[in-house]
């Protein structure tokens, strides 16, 4: 009998940013955060976990390449914690249950987006790892409980255990047991929430978020004010905006929080920069787009947000996506026929809406934005069929060629 | 008899940044600030003021081009205030004094640096305006008193009334009478304080500082924390560092405050960016230079600071200037023979100090940094001789050709 399970897990992009840990080994954050889960039809990590008494050690392959599981490292912690849950919740209660917690595991994981796209894969990756082990171990499927473990792999991974709009409650306990993800609203609540990812070319490798955020905690005089006096109200206000499907408020808070995250990064010593001139130009274009929209209707129509890198994610309602892509390709031209819209939108060579001041940005050279990904809000981890397994009969990763 | 006077006034570059007004018409700041006055041998505004009963209105020419003096505008306010001082302090006390306060004035002003250099000329310009009128009107020369008037022309102009290290005390009174400049230390206290200005090419016109700072006051959640809890201690600490000639502390505070100013600009809605990718690269190079210095001696050797634009000003001790210019031209090459050092330094084609990690920045194309200005700390406004007058016999600006 083969004990194995394959799951996929989504990427999430925060609207209220996580930046700073109060406990670096348990990965407990200095503030709560909130994200939108993106559709696995477009971006996902897929993971197969297999337990077998013949395996001599825990092993893991990422995109076909073996990663060393360091003792006491993040992957090791997640695997150990999942084995512990298997024992406590299944084996200790049912003497007939196979003792999978005593077997070593082989894990193969695959991201369907290139690492070079600059999209954080650790969130979807650790969410897929934890959910595949949960399926392998037939654990009661409470995503908040699993999020406690995914969090110890990569903080933001805890938010990828749910679809829709997801809050990571910072918690106050030193054990971290109250620092988990909860769903604010499922994807079905606001299915017209779409996202456009602008993949920005960047020569320079930025500061890793793990070391960057701790430098901010140690040196930024502004961070504590953000944590104590800004984020709590934003969490409350954006949660209400989501429940009310109030895009204008959702967008304003999302943009302000992206900018404030980059502001505290800049208030760090030495300062940390993730956005570059192309990122700044995308902000200028979206701000002008919103200025025109506010003039007409009083409400903004798009929200940019930037994580620890130069890529923009633009949230908008489905009805505005075509107009926004046209605008983006006007300033950031794409090679002919390079962009195929998965929703069937026909995009021309770019134009701006009426009343738009084109002087807010120059037309950049082809390749400045090196790719566009149009996606939408999506669901949480999915259990996949046996035919999707990433491991071959020997328990080694299948060739993906 | 011709009543006229010519003075020159210096540029100043803040170490603790002024950003935000509590009173926009009196130009009262939300926080105190502190600057270094740069040498007028290199950068200066020169102004001739003449009072004559034949003049029919106050007129002003900047670099040969007439500027309209708007009623209630900043130039008008400064001229009116200076006439009031003339009347109160001179004419009301001495019945024989000519009634210059009743005459119109012609004013010609000239900046010896190109506006295109992107250096703020309003500080030196208003300081020269006020000091030339003070000389014309034979006012008792108390720079702090004059700074009250220069402040109403352009906030940071008040700091150009002194040489050396200058604090602008924010004050608390609604009249603004306690919001003036004071000298922390004269230029003779620390004559080895040098400055290297890197003039950065920028396609895009940034947000004006006048409108930008008020947008920050209105929308940045972080600004109030900066004002109340960060700046007061920095003012105290940097003043002490100056008195102690403690370059390490001076530099660390200067860099942190530049970064924090740009952080609150970014925390504004819509966000304000003044630094571009070249500015960021200069920061990376100076930070690496300091990292190497700290490793060797425990102390930093250079301090970058950026005002409301992409240009860097690098403060350093005289002994390090050559090394720093060599390093800057390594990453930001200059056209052959374009840089002539006024202090006679012989600069090669660029090199970095031992132990310096060259991967912190790429080598930029020629023109990215379009000019270098090496200068040093300098004195306050200077009264110039009659031969320096900028007005001809008719009271019109002399041709400068």
TrEMBL record, chains A, B:
InterPro entries found in the cross-reference section: GHMP_kinase_C_sf, Mev_decarb, Mev_diP_decarb, MVD-like_N, Mvd1_C, Ribosomal_Su5_D2-typ_SF, Ribsml_uS5_D2-typ_fold_subgr
Residue stretches making up the Mvd1 C-terminal domain: 195-383
Pfam families listed in its UniProt record: MDD_C, MVD-like_N
SUPFAM superfamilies assigned to the protein according to its UniProt record, in alphabetical order: GHMP Kinase, C-terminal domain, Ribosomal protein S5 domain 2-like
Keyword Repeat in record: no
Leader sequence segment: none
EC number: 4.1.1.33
Keyword Lyase: yes
Entries under NCBIfam families matching the protein: mevDPdecarb
Protein name as annotated: Diphosphomevalonate decarboxylase
Organism lineage: Eukaryota, Fungi, Dikarya, Basidiomycota, Agaricomycotina
